[in-house]
Amino acid sequence: MPFYVIYIYIYPVKKIFLLWIFPFFIWAQSPVDTLTSSKITLVFGGDIMCHGPQIRAAYNDSLNTYDFHENYVFLHNIFSHADFTILNLETTIGLKPYSGYPQFSAPPELLTAAKSAGINVLMTANNHSCDKGRKGIVSTLNFLDNLELKHTGTFRNKKEADSLVPLILEKNGIKIALVNYTYGTNGIPIPYPTRVNLIDTLKIKKDLARAKVLNPDIIIAFLHWGIQYKNYPSKKQKQLADFLHKNGVKIVIGSHPHVIQPIELQRDSLNETSKLTVFSLGNFISNQRKFPRDGSILVKFSIEKLSDRKITIDNFETIPLWVYKFFDKNKAHYLILPVKDFILQPDFFEQNTDYQKMMKFYKHYQSFKFDKL
């Protein structure tokens, strides 16, 4: 401003001219144009299940070990471009004898392969959290910690539950508060002193209040909810999503139905994402072969923060996946396929019927019109 006054005084004959150009000069130097930003990319996936046939398929007879790496060979390119790749771990880890449904316990090599593929955050609150009692919860947490995989949802004791909720993820100057809850544990009591985060609006409200004190840039909730095998969310899911959004959660991610469900993406007056709800991502990997349980989606998006702390969600996309199970010398193999990469490769499949099953799931995926969001 002083510069403007002096300039007018020295050159009074140009006063009128300068009054016209001055606003443009200020506009060009506006702080809005000099804001810097930071950005991270997130990928969310569905249920990592480990049924008995998957355990047997991963077993190496000659080495007496398990290896799940082949499940992920076509996903490295997707996960390598994400800062955080977050999925639901729907099995306990490490207690022998290993078992699938109805009470899951998978070899720790399941986690080793997941980490190698680029998965770095796992949700542990789901209806199978208590399948192997207290030992199963503690064993799972121990293996996650030993592999330095971030996690939330289950805890060894009350002290941990109080101090580790929410899970904080930080990168590039962006802080995320992440919470995880399940509708129940299949009627199995939660063994003392362990804790499993249950969907309880009073508790969730307290947790969100605690999260806000930590001053995160964004709060995300990952919920294990809904009705199995239903293609559309229940009334309770919608009510809970509304509750979460009203209490400061910007992004709600869902799992449990084992099938994909709709996505609601709301935008504000500036056409920027204000609320995102993914009702169900489906089975990331499982031995459930019945359509449409044989496929799932990944949701991928970036979170950008301007220097004024304004948060935007950009580059939103969904990636359909299909689990290809085939046999070689009487041994089963499981590959998670990014569907769009294999649409023009029918010869990749051992049988044309497998290709047709993948395309059936893809058509189902297209019916949700995720590309129009």
Please tell me about this protein's structure:
With 373 residues, the chain is an alpha/beta fold. It folds into two domains: 2-32, no CATH class; 41-372, 4-Layer Sandwich (Purple Acid Phosphatase, chain A, domain 2). 28% of the residues lie in helices and 31% in strands. It contains ten helices and 20 strands. The chain has helices spanning 2-10, 15-28, 52-58, 76-79, 109-117, 133-146, 158-163, 201-213, 235-246, 352-366; strands at residues 37-48, 59-60, 65-66, 84-89, 92-93, 105-106, 121-123, 150-152, 154-155, 167-171, 174-182, 195-196, 218-224, 251-255, 263-267, 273-278, 283-285, 295-306, 311-328, 331-338. The strands form five sheets. Strands 1, 4, 7, 8, 17, 18, 19 and 20 form an eight-stranded mixed β-sheet that branches. A hairpin with a 4-residue loop joins strand 18 and strand 19 (311-328). The protein is globular. The model is unreliable at 1-34 (pLDDT under 50).
Per DSSP E runs of 2 or more residues, the count of β-strands stands at: 20
Structural class: alpha/beta
CATH level 1 name of the largest domain: Alpha Beta
Proportion in helices: 25-40%
Q: Which sequence of SSEs, written as H and E, runs from N to C? A: HHEHEEHEEEHEHEEHEEEHEHEEEEEEEH
SSE layout and pairing:
Layout: H1 2-10, H2 15-28, E1 37-48, H3 52-58, E2 59-60, E3 65-66, H4 76-79, E4 84-89, E5 92-93, E6 105-106, H5 109-117, E7 121-123, H6 133-146, E8 150-152, E9 154-155, H7 158-163, E10 167-171, E11 174-182, E12 195-196, H8 201-213, E13 218-224, H9 235-246, E14 251-255, E15 263-267, E16 273-278, E17 283-285, E18 295-306, E19 311-328, E20 331-338, H10 352-366
Parallel strand pairs: 1-4, 1-17, 4-7, 5-6, 7-8, 11-13, 13-14, 14-16
Antiparallel strand pairs: 1-18, 2-3, 9-12, 10-11, 15-16, 18-19, 19-20
